[in-house]
Structure formats: C-alpha cells, structure tokens
From TrEMBL:
Transmembrane segments: none annotated. It comes from Bradyrhizobium iriomotense. Residues 440-690 form the EAL domain. Residues 298-431 form the GGDEF domain. It comes from the Bacteria. This is Diguanylate cyclase.
Amino acid sequence: MEDRDRQVADNGPLGSLALGGLLEQAVNNLWLGIILFDRRREVIYCNQRYMDMYGLAPDEVRPGTPVSNLIQHRLKLGLKIRGEADDYVRARTERTIVSEQAVQEFADGRIIAYTVHPLPDGGGMATHEDITEREELSARLRQRNMQFDIAINNMSHGLCFFDADRRLIVCNKDFIDMYGLPPERVGPGTPLSDIVDMRFAAGSVPAMSRDEYMKWRTGVVVSAEPVDSIVEMRNGRTFKIRHRPMPDLGWVATHEDITEQRRTELKIAHMAHHDALTDLANRALLNQRLEQAFTSNQMFAVHHIDLDKFKSVNDTLGHHAGDALLKGVSERLRRLVRPGDTIARMGGDEFVVLQTPIGEASEAATLAQRIIGQMSAPFEIDAQQTIAGASIGIAIAPADGATPEQLLRNADLALYRAKGDGRGMYRFFEPTMDEEVQGRRALELDLRKALASGEFELHYQPLVKSHSGEISGFEALIRWQHPQRGLIPPNSFIPLAEEIGLIVPIGEWVIRQACMTASRWPKHLHVAVNISAVQFRYGGLAEVIVGALAAAGLDASRLEIEITESVLLQDKEGTLATLHRLRELGIRIAMDDFGTGYSSLTYLQCFPFDKIKIDRSFVRDVATDAGSLNIVRAIAALASGLGMTATAEGVETREQLDRIAAEGCTEMQGYLFSRPLPAADIERRFLSPEAPALPDRFAAA
Ligand code: C2E
Ligand code: CA
Ligand code: CA
C-alpha cells in the first residue's frame, strides 16, 4: 500500500498506468471527467477534471479505491436520487457493467451527464460532463418557445411567417380562424398557394379572381417592401394586413380584423356629414360638394328652399309633427333629384339642392317648379292633412357666384324675393337683389334712429259722411321725414318696422300723437289710428291706448282703431280679448282694407266691428267694372244689415262718389275730399271758424 501511495504521489493520478506525459496532460485538460475501473469496481484511473468536478483529493481516487466510495461521496455532495442511499449504492455496484447514459442532478443545481462504457476485461470507463449551463440554456429555450407560442396565439391578430420558398413556417390560431382555414391542413411547410386555395374555398378573399389575387400577393412578396393593405373580404369582413419582408426573403404578416373599427369610423364620418333627422347632407358636406362642382367647370344650380308652412305646423301640431313633416319633405326631395345631385338640410326648415350639372337655366326652373308642386301636395302627419309649401331662390354657377358662400348667399337673396312675392314660387337671383338688400339694411339703420330724432309726423285725412258731406273725423297716417331722402310713405317702411319690431314704439308714438291732436278738435270729431298685428302680438296694447287717452284727456268714444284681418291670423283668442276690452271702453273698431284678404267675411262673424272700410281697389273700378260695383253693393248691404258703418276708401272722382253713395256706403274717404295733411293744415282748412264746411257738392244727392 505504501508503494502505491508513493507511486501516486510521484506519477500523478495515472499511477502505474504508463501514459506518456503529453497524453496525460491532454487527458487531464479534457472537458470530460474520466474514470476507469476494473471488474472489481475499483478505480484504475481518473483524470484531473473528474477530481475537480467532485472536489476529490488525489488520495481519494487513487487506484484501488472502491467505486462505491466515490458514489457515497457524490451522495454526500447532494446527488439527488430516488429511494434509499444504500439501495442506490448497492444497485450501482453489484450488477454487471452495461452501456449506460444518465443525468445526475445535485442539490447545488449542478447537472452532470455521465456515460458508462463497458471495457472488454469486465471493467468500465465512465465519462462525466457538467451540462448545467447547457441544460439551463435549453430550459430557457424551451421556455422561450412556450412563451412564443402563448404570445402568437394570444395577440388578437393573425400572424404568419413564410420562408423564401413561400412555404409557411408558422402561423397562429387567429390566422387560421380569421380565414376559416381547416387547421389540420395548415402546418409548417404548407405552400402559400395551398393556403390561398383554402381561402377561396372558405370565401375569405377579396372580390378578385384567384389569378388576380395571386398576382397581387406575389407582387407584394416580390417587392420585398413593407406593405400595409386594407382588404375587404367577400364575406363582409375588413382586414388590415401588414406585410414585412425578412432578410432571408421570407416574410412575416400580421392580419387584423378591423371590420368593427371600420364600421364605427364610417358611421362617425357619416354623422359628421349628415343631418341626424333627415339623413340628408349637412352644411359641411354641401360645401365639399359645392367646391367639387366648381372644379368641374360645368354650369350648375343651387336651389335654396324654405318651407312656407313649417312654422305653423310646428306651432300648432308640435315638434313631433314638425319633425315628421321635415322627414316627409326630405323623402319627396330625394325622389325629385338625380343621383349626382345633393340635397342638404341647412337647419330648421331650410334645404338646399345642388343640381349639377345643368345644360341651361331652364332645367333649374323645371326642378324648382316640380319641388314646389310636390311640396304643395298634402302630407299626412298625425292623421292630419298638412301642406308644407315651398319658396325657392335659385343661383346659377358660375354666373351668380364664384365661391360656395357667394352662391349660397345669392340663392338666399333670391329666396327672400320669392317669399316677398307671395311664397309658393321660385325666383332666380338678379344682381339688383343685392343692391336692394344693401338699401334695406341702410333703411333699417336709419329707421332705428328716426323715432328718437323726431323724424316722424302724422298727416290726417278727413272721413266724410255721404249724405251730408260733413266731416265725421280724420284718419291719422304716418309720414317719415327722412333727413336725406325726404318724405317716405308708410308702405316703404311700415313692413320693415313690423319685421324688426320697431312698429311697437312707433305705433305707441302714433297713438299718443293722434290722441293729443284730436283733443284740440271739436268734440264731435273722432280720430282713426291704424294698428298693426305686431302691436297686438307684443302685448300691453290696451294699456298704451288707455294711457294715451288719459294723457290727452280724450274721450274713448272719439278714438277709432283700424285693423286688418292679419291681426286675427295669429293668437285669435288673445287678440279678440283685447278688442273686446277696447270696445268696452268705448273705442270703435274698424275692419280696414276689407275684401283684400281671404277670410274677411269669417272675421266679421267673430267680432262686432263698428265699421268696414271697403278697400280702394274696389272703389277705383266701381265706375267701370260691374264686378267691383257688385262687391261694393254687397259689402254695403252686409254692413247695414249688421249695423256697421260702411266706408269707401280712395274716392277720387265725382263719378265714384255718386256710384258709391247710390250703393249705400255711409262714409267716404279720398283725394276727392282731401289728401292727408299735416295737423296744422287740417285745422286751418277744416276746423277754424272761418273754414267753410265741405262744399255741399260733396253731399250725395
Ligand atoms: P290705409 O290704412 O289703407 O290708409 C289709406 C291709404 O290710402 C293712405 O296711404 C292714404 O294716403 C291713401 N289714400 C287715401 N285716399 C286716397 C285716394 O283717393 N287715392 C289714393 N290713391 N290713395 C288714397 P298712406 O298714407 O300711404 O298709407 C298707406 C298705408 O300705410 C295705410 O293704408 C296703412 O296701412 C299704413 N299706415 C299708415 N300710417 C300708419 C300707422 O300710423 N300705423 C300703421 N300700423 N300703419 C300705418
Ligand atoms: Ca287705415
Ligand atoms: Ca285701407
């Protein structure tokens, strides 16, 4: 034993084994731990690496050491085994040596693979290799693979990799599902063309032939450029495909189902350009279409449509009915235009039709006439027959405007004219309309200042009794003494004053002024004042009148107010209540311009008027036209039957006077007796002690 010890100490672990120094060096530097043992399972040789691996001193592995010691040693180092240590050691040392490969794990995490090779003499050689790092690496790889699998199958996009031969490397489940592919037929190596065939079978392809599709797809592949495409499938889905080439000439593509997103986007885009109620184009879209129309260099027309009766439907039947009418109108408009035309709702009851292109202006007139026709046919709303009625202003491009704004504005001016001309008609834009609007605007500014500047005055026109020629009173008629334009007649500014509400303070001034003037007249003379419908609607009219009478100290019985039937068109109940109140105070009420409205007779029934003023248009023709004479006769008879005064307006000739007196009109007014005159002239001519009574010749025979 002592010899052996020495030998080991002298010759290194190879002991008596006669290995050359170089070889021994090589074996010791091997990455593998090597151990040789004989058939008695005693160590013959082990290299340095083996000792290093297991932390063994040369002494512990010297030749003759039982292998079981080394196994025990490994167990001490923390070798993980199944079962008992003794059993393990016995099993390893008792059975015959066979070829074997195994992996041993240690408590410190080391993993060592060993191989046993039987040797011819019954012994064996074992190699030990520390594979800890390699194992860790492959464990990491395995994990990577798993993570990759999880990732690609949970990315909510379809994903596929193809190689340079256009064969599938890998794809995920989403890809298979999105395109409805048979999963068992899609695996690594499947050619692109097979997948395309499967897609054609499933219908998950765009509306193209197979050839067209392959041509497009191959084009993308060959280009070797990143390409993003949005593809609409035959089955109604929309996919976004991001194709990315890879350095090896293969590619990776992600497939995203953007169907819902697309629908939402389209819906939002639609909403941004359409009116919610009627689904017609809105202003924004109309503007786009107008811009387009201008770039086409063709003639086109813009129709600005306004519904005549919408407001009354909305007011009387409610918003719900108003909405229904707007929808009905939209439907009819849709049926009237051509596919390339645009109908827009501009808000409220205003619509614009862009008719493009047209060959000549008369085509616009034809369409406008059709629209008006359709709008005057009844709509059934809430089981009621309703008419929308339409007025239309037309502007033709490029003549009437070079920009959408200009064209729309000019169509609007034409619309204004159409409405002013009595509604239910169309008007083409004319350049003078612009000037008129400017003029109107200037007039409006002046009118707002006129009252404060004391530019108004009242003229008075006598009312004459037919049988005696005596004056019964005077009608107050307003005049505007404009500082630059001179005298402006009421018909030129009263409608404007009514429109902008100024008639209320102006009318109040008229009432006060007229009462004040009349208070200086002899007590048997009355004063007639014209009251506009707007004054009734505004409220407080009775208070204003009572206040004016009180301020002037004028008896209510000396005031007469003249109203036209338009006063009773709106808020009939409220207006009638005011009229009754005034009448109870002793004020007389006259129906002015009788015969010019639609329902004069109806209104006569609903209020006990004191007087009917027969419109000048009948008086004018009374000598020449039997129809007018008959009307005057009928009205006079009606008035007398109802106990009212019948007054003929606008009597200018002796002949008219005679005819009218013969028909029973009790009172007359007209240039034949006097033009309207300033208060001072009236006093001088008719009321001073020296003034002659109206000549007897004016009394009816
Ligand atoms: P109206 O109430 O029918 O007044 C009668 C109009 O006929 C007056 O016109 C008068 O000058 C005119 N006239 C009287 N006799 C003759 C005649 O023989 N021949 C002709 N051709 N005309 C005659 P004017 O003063 O221009 O007033 C026009 C309208 O303006 C009035 O018609 C009335 O509706 C309105 N108006 C006048 N003053 C006022 C007012 O203070 N307030 C309101 N709201 N309206 C007024
Ligand atoms: Ca009048
Ligand atoms: Ca009148």
